[in-house]
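Example 3.2
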Amino acid sequence: MLKRLNKAERKFLDGPMSRWTELKYAFTIFYQMIIGLRKLHFIGPCVTVFGSARFKEDHPYYKLTRTLSAEIAKLGFAIMTGGGPGIMEAANRGAKEVGGLSIGCNIVLPEEQHINPYMDKYVLIDYFFVRKVLLRKYSFAFIVMPGGFGTMDEFFEALTLVQTKKTEKFPIVVMGVDYHKDLLEHIQRMIMEQTINADDLQLILFTDSVDAAIEHLKKFSIDAFNLKLREAKKRWWIFGEFDY
């Protein structure tokens, strides 16, 4: 197995590296975080949409995402996605088509994750954990569309942060009731086994309705946090704050 890994991967699996190598690694992470923070600093309140990169534009989930994102953008939110194809493209496209701000935080991957053409601006990140911080940082709500391992990772991390009060009680909407029915059943099993509390289920709305999702965002995001559109701030070139 190790013979198939590249040199950098084998070195990482060897355990602790030299102090200098680990310091460079830490500075690389810090640099990517700062670039992301500077590029996304002025985007305003966002709703982040998670979902699979594999759905094509004729798929019902793609169409649902495109419609929902357009309605969210009409509320005044920027739409944030992972910047790739599939559900991410649909979300960025829906926002773009109604004049909303469309943002991407892409990840460097060997396949699937090409950049979609419907973003006003985006940042390209090497590390999943840096990307997830940026996807969450500017968002006042999260939409979970059908997806795979990555989508579940993003969903449960956001949910855990809300549950443990490490972040504000932002609304989380899971679209696609039939697709997620086994997930809901498992969450109910967690409640039965008392690994989570019964009221933790109230942190999530499972629905297929665009109207229900929009009303949920209005109540638990816009009204709850008294959100208003912000005027553009003066940019400071010394901090690299200019239009990208």
